[in-house]
Amino acid sequence: TQGQVITCKAAVAYEPNKPLVIEDVQVAPPQAGEVRIKILFTALCHTDAYTWSGKDPEGLFPCILGHEAAGAVESVGEGVTEVQPGDHVIPCYQAECRECKFCKSGKTNLCGKVRSATGVGVMMNDRKSRFSVNGKPIYHFMGTSTFSQYTVVHDVSVAKIDPKAPLEKVCLLGCGVPTGLGAVWNTAKVEPGSNVAIFGLGTVGLAVAEGAKTAGATRIIGIDIDSKKYETAKKFGVNEFVNPKDHQKPIQEVIVDLTDGGVDYSFECIGNVSVMRAALECCHKGWGTSVIVGVAASGQEISTRPFQLVTGRVWKGTAFGGFKSRTQVPWLVEKYMNKEIKVDEYITHSMTLGEINKAFDLLHDGTCLRCVLST
Ligand code: NAD
Ligand code: AHE
Ligand code: ZN
Q1: DSSP 8-state symbol, 326
Q2: Helices 273-281 and 251-258 sit at what angle, rounded to 10 degrees?
Q3: Phi and psi angles of residue 374, each rounded to the nearest 5 degrees, phi first
Q4: Which of 112, 218, 223, 120 is nearest to 157 (CA)?
Q5: Which residues of the chain have pLDDT under 50?
Q6: pLDDT, tens digit, for every residue of 17-54?
Q7: Residue ranges with CB less than 5 Å from ion ligand 3
Q8: Among 2, 38, 360, 375, which one is least packed by beta carbons within 10 Å?
Q9: Three-state DSSP class for 146?
Q10: Which residues line ligand 1 (CB under 6 A)?
Q11: 57 C-alpha to center of ligand 2: Å?
């Protein structure tokens, strides 16, 4: 198949919110600096649903969504040296080129090399898509497009992993789990003995809990409007639970009262701008730090009284938990293999690519954390 167009099945999003269509898609060979990957397993993340909803200004249609996956390299383009056919890999929507201003800064995991292309659904080389259906181009998404049996990505967006790692599990290390762990370890840098509040106990919030537990946090307070979330959350380290619906007062006041003035760290893992405000305002005066992890829709804005920051609270955000993807995803895979981090526990459902619309329905069901599709 090397050097040839591959025809395979992919789930195409033709229009916002219209069911995805399983199509025969043509996938062009990788050009210079590109890698064609046979996707074996892909999970769904709420960010896919967000873009599908039409609220993401970077969501272009028709496109192939998906960004949490694992597979094997099928072929590589000219000049690609770090991976070869057969290597097991995780596509990384957050690239790492190790050469750009961002990568060299030592201050961020964001990478500038291919971002201008991945935000508009094309490849860097020729600003075109490698996907088509009957000659009509289909946009890429987040530089990954994993809801397909084959995809083409930039070489700076590929993490080569231990071939012994079970791909049906470690596909989760492409997004949600690292995001939560890294929000605690890299972005907030939670110290032992800290009090932590987590707003939203989906996969991302639970991974924050796991990160907080391993960082030695003392009180890990989970906040969710679905009380059923507490039972599962306990297994990830949450040791107190508050449902905002059980209280008359604003939730930030409830947390401040519970914690003698506020928490040391809070995390917003929902994507709701009023909860982002509450998460900042439940932080302790003088030092409390709040990290925004959830993705809010285009056009939404955050607000608070500047006095909240004047008096020492800190407002931050995180993308992919601050992890340098190509370097650290393989390290996270090793941590999983050594049983130092959970992954299996986040997988509540398994299906096939053909059942993807059913899998999207499940995202809105409180019992689903991650659904893994075999392609
Ligand atoms: P999820 O939907 O599984 O979890 C959200 C949880 O929040 C649910 O348990 C829900 O009951 C709860 N919730 C909803 N409204 C609430 C409210 N007002 N108060 C308290 N709880 C409330 O989602 P997820 O997969 O865990 O993802 C969470 C967010 O993180 C999404 O916005 C996703 O797009 C984003 N995300 C960001 C990054 C990043 O790099 N920054 C990476 C992955 C995901
Ligand atoms: N395209 C959206 C923003 C989406 C967003 O914030 N994405 C997160 C990852 S979410 C993964 O589930 C991210 O890492 N952003 C950094 C980046 O460079 O995209 C919009 O609203 O425009
Ligand atoms: Zn995601």
Answers
A1: H
A2: 30
A3: -90, 140
A4: 112
A5: none
A6: 999 999 999 999 999 999 999 999 999 999 999 999 99
A7: 45, 47, 175
A8: 2
A9: coil
A10: 45-47, 50, 175-176, 179, 199-205, 223-226, 229, 244, 269-272, 275, 293-295, 318-320
A11: 10
Q: What is the DSSP pairing of strand 265-268 with strand 289-292?
A: parallel
pLDDT tens column, 93-120: 999 999 999 999 999 999 999 999 999 9
Cβ neighbours of residue 26 under 8 Å, at least 6 residues apart?
A: 5, 6, 7, 131, 132, 133
Residue with tokens 């053909």: 354
Angle 144-148-150 from CA coordinates, rounded to 5°: 80
- Tokens 């907080």 locate to 212
Please identify every residue annotated as catalytic: 45-47, 67-68, 97, 100, 103, 111, 115, 175, 370
d(CA 287, CA 301): 24
Residue with tokens 């993490």: 159
Question: What is the model's pTM?
Answer: 0.98
- Ligand 1 pocket mutation pick from 92, 108, 111, 270 by most atoms within 8 angstroms of CB: 270
